[in-house]
Amino acid sequence: MKRNLPESFNDCLGKIYRSEDLKTSVRMLYSFFKDYLPLDYITMLIYDVEQSMLRYRIHSTEESVVLVEETKKVTEDTRKEALAFINSEIRTLYIPNGQNHSIVQEFDEHVGIREPASTIAHGAEAGQNQYVVLALVVWEEDRYNQKDIDLVKDISEPIDNALRHIYSQLVIAPLRNRLTADNREARKRLVLNKAEGNLGLRDVMSRIEQVAKLDTPVLLMGETGVGKELIANTIHQHSRRAERPLVSINCGAIVETLLDSELFGHEKGAFTGAGNVKIGFFEQANGGTIFFDEVSELSMLAQVKLLRVLQNMTFQRVGGQKTVSVDVRVIAATNRDIARMVENREFRKDLWFRLNTFPITIPTLRERKEDIPGLAEYFAKRLAVEMNLPYRYRFAPYAMEQLQKYNWPGNVRELENVIEQALILSRGAPLSFHHLANIRTEIPSVSHGEKNNQIITMNEIMRRHIISVLNLTRGRIEGRGGAAEILDMKSSTLRARMRKLGIRVAKFPDKILTN
After folding, report:
1. Alpha helices in 112-201 (DSSP H)
2. Tens-place pLDDT, residues 329-381
3. Residues 92, 115, 69, 383, Cα dihedral to 10°
4. Which pTM does this prediction carry?
5. Which of 226, 227, 241, 369 has the highest count of CB atoms within 10 angstroms of its CB?
6. Which fold has domain 367-514?
């Protein structure tokens, strides 16, 4: 005879049905089971009977809900075992040790799980040839007792309904676009929260607090990877314009011939290919903030056009006669010495004066090494959740000392990439960073340090820096942790610059080769 359902589950179930947000539904399901069972995490998998495909879709812990897309074609033995489970009347299965169960073992090997765990698995039919499997998992073998198993069996029908509701949210929602946006914003918020606790950023945060509520133009200065876009986002979010758009522009990526169209928009028929009216960046940012990243990369012609608009906030679309007025707050950023560029007549003095009303210099990571332990711990914790790592991370006793001895030419972005790489390679072993001692960390500078007392050219400085980053990534250019991401460049731009500077990468490089 089935026991009465816990009242809290009835409440939880009703909330799940009313929830239109996938992560909220999963979080409520996790919270219910956490109240009644030993639980470290839950996962949700979808099994396609016809294609024999197992899809890993949801991983939820007490801290977060992560949506993933891992697909595994199962072996013939696993397919038979899955069919036997589906065709039986048993919908709840206890697995004392997943390493001894073929289905769990096969998928654990696919995603890299090595630690023993106890699992209660419950399956529900979700559609034609589609089954949803909820796995309740706690680390260590045989942690569940008969009372725990009976509870899941007794409430199997409401669990089925909850799983079908969550499954419908997975299938119907435009997940890919939404996840990309959610993760980007969540990452910015999380890093901001961590940054506010960093000793080395206290002065920066103080200046942000002073200027955020005003409409004063802000110029952010600092090396690549220090977090200029994050600071721009922080200023916007703390301003009176927070509910309006923040439009970010990579000035180095704008094609000169399309500059007017990109910034100011164009009318239909303004030029060949202009089939519709286009709203430019300034109109998109109306009422909000416009962020010019790497503003020092603008050509002199582009600087003139930008200055003209900043003076009165009016312009005309390409091919248009009507004057458009906008109200935007301007934030600019650069990793170059604009004052020196002004002296060398490479940047307009009048534009610099307009942008430099309230400058904020963001310190490099090597200038605030006291922040490295906290940042490393934060990145490890966040990335372990994002990557659904099946093992617990931990740092070796000497790891922080290794991190603090390195000079971090790629700054915080490089630190994050190094932590991510270490987590992937560790397989649960303590994180250590011996390899950093073998990486040259000198920051090239314009000085008379050469033996012949000749000033080093900008191209040579750039060439050396790119080579050092390529050595760090072992020649990898694209993707997470690649040289393009560390250097904050498009991969195509980086490759073009490498060709210009005579840098080439061997197919299986131990080092970067140069022409």
Report:
1. 146-154, 156-172, 175-195
2. 999 999 888 888 999 998 999 999 999 999 999 998 888 888 888 888 888 88
3. 130
4. 0.50
5. 226
6. Helicase, Ruva Protein; domain 3 (1.10.8)
The dihedrals phi and psi of 332, each to the nearest 5 degrees, come to: -125, 155
Q: Domain 7-173: which topology? A: Beta-Lactamase (3.30.450)
- Tens of pLDDT along 189-228? 444 444 445 566 788 888 988 999 999 999 999 888 888 8
Half-sphere exposure of 205 (CA within 13 A, CB side): 11
Residue entry with tokens 């009313």: 18
Q: Which two tokens stand for residue 420?
A: 């991510």
Instruction: Please check whether residue 446 is in contact with residue 440, taking contact to mean a CB–CB distance below 8 angstroms.
Output: no
User: Is the distance from CB of 441 to CB of 450 less than 8 angstroms?
Assistant: no
Q: At 135, is the secondary structure helix, strand, or coil?
A: strand
Q: In the CATH scheme, what is the code of domain 179-361?
A: 3.40.50.300
Report which DSSP code applies to 367: G
Q: Long-range contacts for 400-404 (Cβ within 8 Å, ≥24 apart)?
A: 400/372, 400/373, 400/376, 402/432, 402/433, 402/434, 402/436, 402/437, 403/372, 403/373, 403/376, 403/433, 403/436, 404/369, 404/372, 404/373
